[in-house]
Amino acid sequence: MNGGLNVILLGPLGSGKGTQGKLLEKKYGIPHLSAGDILRSEVKEKTPFGLKAKQIMDRGELVADALIIEMMNKRLSQTDCEKGYILDGYPRTIEQADALDRFLNKLQKKLFSAIFLEIPDDEIVKRLSGRLTCEQCGRSYHAAANPPMAEGFCNQWGGRLTHRADDTEGTVRSRIEVYKQKTAALVDYYEKKKLLARVASVGGIKAVFQRICSLIDEKGMADRP
Ligand code: AMP
Known about the structure:
The protein is an alpha/beta fold. It has helices at residues 17-28, 35-44, 48-58, 65-76, 94-106, 121-129, 169-183, 185-192, 205-222, and strands spanning 5-10, 32-34, 84-88, 113-118, 131-134, 140-142, 161-162, 196-200. A five-stranded parallel sheet has the order 2-3-1-4-8, sandwiched between helices. Strands 6-5-7 form a three-stranded antiparallel sheet. A hairpin with a 5-residue loop joins strand 5 and strand 6. The site of adenosine monophosphate has 18 residues, from helix 2 and helix 3.
């Protein structure tokens, strides 16, 4: 693979980017980098950036491009990213996508694929209203579709599971709007670059995971010199 398995998971909130990102991290041995998780850890640590970001996140709006680009460039420059990464929630605007392009070009690396997880709108609200998130590692569960082994606690590290502050009905609605206005355009953006792959994010976590892995493995074989 040319310069690593650099994958973007695209898709609206609740499409399974976080859940699939964690599974892909384990299978391919590359980090799952969620812009939202990085921001939430800044919020938890009450850094000046985190305190500013929290107000924006609680309203369901996007944090300024320049700040996110700087935050992600810094994270993507760490040594664990050399073999690739699974990006979740980044890029979210055309400006961020252009910045990622510039970042990769500078390192003479390429994007492997932008995988678009497609789900119907009514499924989004259903998924988010039952979503529980680990306070420690950010793993997501669903009260009905993907319950934890011990109620209220994460399977991985035993962290407490809570509802995310921005998973309230009002904020979910603003986030869907923001997605449609700013992020949905990235589907066209990567389609034009012939980097887009579509995956139906329905039918259970395992089935979706298998679809994504087949896509990655087939493309990986085809791209071999
Ligand atoms: P997520 O965990 O991906 O749902 O992100 C939660 C919130 O963090 C979003 O609603 C935004 O307020 C903020 N956020 C995450 N990623 C980005 C990004 N790439 N650009 C701007 N804001 C972001």
